[in-house]
Design a protein that fits this description.
The complex is a heterodimer of chains A (540) and B (312).
Chain A: H1 8-12, H2 19-32, E1 35-43, H3 49-59, H4 65-74, H5 88-91, H6 95-100, E2 107-112, E3 116-122, H7 130-138, E4 142-148, H8 155-166, E5 171-177, H9 186-198, E6 207-212, H10 236-242, E7 255-257, E8 260-262, E9 270-277, E10 279-280, E11 285-289, E12 293-302, E13 305-307, E14 310-311, E15 315-320, E16 331-334, E17 340-351, E18 362-367, E19 370-384, E20 390-394, E21 401-415, E22 426-430, E23 437-445, H11 460-472, H12 478-504, H13 507-534
Parallel strand pairs in A: 1-3, 1-4, 4-5, 5-6
Antiparallel strand pairs in A: 2-3, 7-9, 7-16, 8-9, 9-15, 10-14, 11-12, 11-16, 12-13, 12-15, 17-21, 17-23, 18-19, 18-22, 19-20, 19-21, 22-23
Helix pairs in contact in A: 12-13
Chain B: H1 18-36, E1 40-43, H2 48-60, E2 70-73, H3 80-93, E3 97-100, H4 103-107, H5 112-136, E4 140-142, E5 159-162, E6 190-193, H6 201-211, E7 222-229, E8 232-235, E9 250-255, E10 266-269, H7 275-284, H8 302-308
Parallel strand pairs in B: 1-2, 1-4, 2-3, 4-6
Antiparallel strand pairs in B: 5-6, 7-8, 7-9, 8-10, 9-10
Helix pairs in contact in B: 1-2, 2-6, 6-7
Classes of the chains: A alpha+beta (540), B alpha/beta (312).
Amino acid sequence: MNIHVSDPVSDSLNDIAAPSVIDRDAVISHHEAKSLLRFMACGSVDHGKSSLLGRLLYDAGLVLDDQIETLRKDSGQLTGAVEDLDFSLLFDGLAAEREQKITIDLAYRFFATDKRKFIVADAPGHEQYTRNMATGASTADLALILVNAQSGLTQQTRRHALIAATLGVRHLVVAVNKMDLVGYAQATFAAIEREFRAFADRLGAAAITFIPVSARKGDNVVKRSAAMDWYRGPTLLDKLETVDVTPRAAHQAFRMAVQWVSRPTPDFRGYCGMIAGGEVRPGQEIVVQPSGQRTTIDQIITANGALDRAGVGQSVTLTLTDDVDVSRGDLLAEAEAPAQVSDRIAARIFWMGQGTFSPGGRYHIKLGTATAAAYVAGPMQLIDLADDAAIKPAERLMSNEFGLCHLELDRPLAADRYDQNRETGSFILIDAETHDTVAMGLIENAGTAEPAAAPVKTSLLGKAVMRVARLFGANESHTRSIAKAMSWRATGSLDTFMIGWFITGNPTIAGSIAGTEIATKIALYYCHERAWALVPWGRR
Amino acid sequence: MNALARTPLAPATAAHSYLDQLEAESIHIMRETVAECDKPVMLYSIGKDSSVLLHLAMKAFYPGKPPFPLLHVDTTWKFREMIEFRDRRTRELNVDLMVHINQEGVQRGIGPITHGSELHTDVMKTQGLRQALDLNGFDAAIGGARRDEDKSRAKERIFSFRNAHHRWDPKRQRPEPWRLFNAHKRKGESIRVFPLSNWTELDVWLYIHRENIPVVPLYFAKPRPVVERNGTLIMVDDDRLPLEPGETPQIRNVRFRTLGCYPLTGAVESEAATVEDIIRETLDSRFSERQGRVIDKDGSASMERKKQEGYF
């Protein structure tokens, strides 16, 4: 990759005696210290996504001579202006894609300016390839959404924006392309912006920026447009270079899924993983989830020496002060703010498999570094992307559809809500027979009865009772039913004792009758209560 | 060249530069491979990407050693300096190295000069790799390929599956959302794992510079004997390279941007004698890296086809 460097640091050094030496070294350190932005590029088929990316790279001086030569050869244009080259040929990699002139699979592109390195997930626009877009969005901080100024917003544009927002992409940049073909009219741009904002309440917390561009002429891509002096916002490259890239999970509680246990010598035991939330320091109290054992961080070990703190995105090896049982799949979490632990999770599902996804299905789940068996429980709902993400009851999900459902796991796992942590709040489902990755999952809630409850330790019996009760699907909480049973029993048993004493005149007999019925009637009342909960009759 | 230019540079101080993020991601991928696979191996081709990969493996499993051996598929036509470097480096780091040569190819006398680049690469490299993997029952091979090297590589997953015949099917790739890699194999399948997928040539050099990683001296310019053929400078590394009538090796100041079999690897004229020089040259270059490779030019979609046949 080639970069034209013209930063103020090197410019100001030009009049010093041996400028080249200092200048060059500064350049290298400068490149080493750059930040990274992962973004996704998407847009409807003819809205000019490849042309825009091509223009971006070309104007930033990043398309190399031999690539242009290959491009000319491939597009059969050995002469002529660079503007007329088909930049999509630069990108579409697989032979099938070049033949059909469409992008089928997700491609990753890389470029760097003097401010940042960029990893671009170049996603196809066709609906049947939505899974590739969802994959690209899962790690992106920004989504570049192309809109053709001539045709305006389409169904696909809305769909792309919804997918990006659902997958937690924080910044949406709507590039209104082909402005040259509408006479650079501000009114056209403003109308598209108005229309987009009208459905933006569906996009959650994502920040939206609108930029009028012309990929063909280069307006507002890297160079500010002279033809659109009415536009005062950033150019596309400005936006990409300045948008905040601090991961949201940096502000959350400490999390690290244990990937591998390192035991090079009998007296060393280290837990390897990448930090998924917050930061960690030696001496910090943590909890091992799902087991719930508490312990303290001893050291943060890296090949460059022990660290006094480590944060999100760092791959480290942690040692603990106590000899607790930790293995791959466990989550190390901040003791005061642990993750939810449950064998039942409510999730948004994006179905990518060949067949349908419906209640009763069984899959392997991979959540962080943990795996378990998962059973799909109802009820299921469809998130209809064609209807601005309206939620509708559904029997099943078809390929490339989003939905909501519950999963029952064969063991409890630790997890967070996806909107709080993308790493600990996401999972994939794996088909047990084909071993394909068939679904992406975004956790809505991993609590059992009360969504707000932190890990509740339920007894084995309690768990069994709740599991049976859950099958009835009652909409009153189990804790509430049990509390009601107990308060009723206290009142009732006192009454029984008084009546028994009055009739028999013997407080011991009255006491044993009342004592026995406490146990039998609590159970009876609970079942009675849950049975009533199933009957909708008479409810208001 | 100014002496001051070679003053060692202070390592980057920014805690979370993009290089830190690339490093952490690659370490994560290697650890995931070891945790999910039964018998992984790391392909070591001696080039700069392999040097970075080996360095990352040492870091990923520190204070332990990488829990997998290194495998070099030797085509018998590598530069002599590469083999010397390989043996020295693996000895210094005390890591297990396995060298595999396709003996069947040797018996048939296959070579790039007599049989052409395509057949030579297929027999000695592609078939050789398949033999070595099958022979040892390796179920995952970690390699240093990068997505920026070729258009078809840009679409390849980090955990990339091969069927029992080591074929890659670009249409049957699993999605890889977040950092959740699915390493479940079907019967007979094996995995190629690419921890450097998101690195570019410049990233590799900046990281080599920052971490002070040793690389084969062939990357640095110095006077070397070369002959010019079809616009490509070929180094006369030993007496197996037949000279055409009237052809005499000339001494030119050259270096290599990529390293492979010496008769198939073009040198570039250069003054870059240090890693810093190479970074500057890469920043200013107007040509992409694999341009010097003869084998990639066999056809427009050649890399995609080779990969489908099991080339790494």
